[in-house]
Write a structure and sequence with these properties.
With about 425 residues, the chain is mainly beta. The protein contains 2 helices and 35 strands. Helices cover about 5% and strands about 45% of the residues. The chain starts with about 25 loop residues before the first strand and ends with a strand.
């Protein structure tokens, strides 16, 4: 049974101006009141999902690979599809509009995605003629107290007046702003402080020739393992049985002990990257992920990948990510019940990472792409440093490396001398 929480809309109820009586009239103050502009919820959700011809990229995010196709996230808007049959000249072929989306995952030509709390499913058997999406309402992520337009912005206000707003039938598409001069006591009596509790805040996180399951990068929030789809949100693992690919079954949520941002698996073990730690779950029973242990670190943004006995985690401090020192952390997970930090390597602004055999690829933002020899994790050696690129996330495929950053998709061929540049596509 899905939980109901006062969620993302209520995070806006933070009174941004103080109730001061410093105005020209003692005991009075100016207050900004925001009232939502609404639209029909069913129509709003229907218009948030669709397929079109290629469109310009606005803000590049994560990437996903499936067969000869690359899916590039346009943050808050959807995914651009590129035909990568020839990696030297990838060709944009379509855009999947997915507003209110965090991630996708693909199995057997079915693309699973989230949109405003719903699970949507596209049949991509014919990539050039993708049909309408199947929608399962309120299947994934928190059932927020309201649905709001993810392409818009929250206004700064002293109070958000939801009187008359019906979250069951309406979506918020904008705001009417009004400044009222009121007595401080009147404002407090009318609107009141501390009336909203439980506010939930979000932290921001080799393919065979004919694959049955696609491959995401280290920022993935969706993960398909055999016949199950796992989708993480800040405090929950959502579990779906997708053995019948066109009729997913919603299973019981699993509540986590930390704020979760990313998901990665190694066999029957899930490794969840969280803002304050690495959390380990056993999926021997795939329908019921079972908590094993956690490795706690300072608050930071932290994608994770795992190879054998070692987890590689990039922590990015500063701004909203937290106070951790930015760098690459190597964690010994040989004993799943007792993980320990084995090494630390400082970085400038780390983001996604991935590996192929003994090579570890780390995106360091504006500092470029770093390639390490990870055969000795206690003494990583730098093999190459592509300083001229802005690196956000990577996916090491069987024959080539995909990298995304600042609206550019780059591909590199593996060679004995390192990486050979194949192509750059401005999106």
């Amino acid at each position: 049974m899905k939980k109901k929480m006062k969620g993302l809309c209520l995070m806006a109820v933070l009174f941004l101006a103080s109730c001061s009586d410093d105005g020209p009239q003692e005991g009075f103050a100016d207050y900004v009141i925001a009232t939502p502009i609404t639209a029909d919820l069913v129509q709003f959700k229907a218009e948030a999902v669709g397929v079109s011809v290629p469109v310009p990229m606005q803000e590049s995010g994560k990437i996903y690979a499936y067969g000869d196709y690359i899916f590039v996230n346009d943050v808050g808007r959807g995914f651009h599809i590129l035909d990568n049959t020839d990696p030297v000249t990838p060709v944009p072929i379509a855009f999947i509009k997915l507003e209110g989306n965090f991630d996708i995952a693909i199995k057997n030509n079915r693309l699973f995605a989230d949109s405003y709390g719903d699970l949507v499913i596209f049949d991509i058997s014919d990539i050039n003629a993708i049909g309408d999406a199947q929608r399962i309402e309120n299947a994934i992520y928190q059932q927020f107290w309201c649905t709001f337009d993810s392409t818009g912005e929250w206004p700064e206000a002293d109070y958000y007046d939801y009187d008359g707003f019906d979250y069951n039938s309406q979506a918020i598409v904008g705001w009417e702003m009004e400044t009222k001069r009121m007595r401080v006591t009147e404002f407090n009596d009318t609107y009141g402080y501390g009336q909203y509790e439980d506010i939930v805040l979000f932290n921001e996180a080799a393919a065979p020739t004919a694959p049955t399951t696609g491959q995401g990068g280290s920022f993935a929030r969706f993960k398909i393992v055999a016949d199950y789809l796992y989708a993480v949100e800040p405090f929950t693992i959502n579990v779906f049985d997708i053995s019948d690919i066109d009729n997913p079954i919603i299973l019981e949520d699993v509540y986590t002990t930390g704020v979760i941002e990313t998901i990665y698996n190694q066999g029957d073990i899930l490794f969840l990257g969280g803002s304050n730690g690495l959390f380990i779950y056993d999926i021997t029973d795939p329908a019921k992920p079972d908590y094993v242990s956690e490795f706690v670190h300072a608050t930071a943004c932290d994608p994770v990948v795992v190879d054998g006995d070692h987890a590689f985690v990039t922590l990015r401090g500063g701004n909203a990510c937290g106070a951790a020192e930015s760098g690459l952390y190597v964690i010994d997970v040989s004993d799943l019940n007792s993980s320990n930090q084995e090494a630390f390597y400082p970085l400038v602004s780390p983001y996604g990472l991935g590996f192929k055999e003994d090579k570890l690829f780390v995106c360091d933002g504006s500092n470029g792409l770093l390639v390490f020899d990870k055969s000795t994790v206690s003494d990583l050696q730098t093999l190459d440093h592509f300083k001229e690129v802005d690196a956000y996330d990577v996916i090491p495929l069987q024959e080539s490396l995909l990298m995304i950053g600042n609206k550019e998709l780059r591909q590199y061929r593996y060679s004995e001398d390192g990486l050979t540049h194949l192509s750059t596509v401005a999106l």
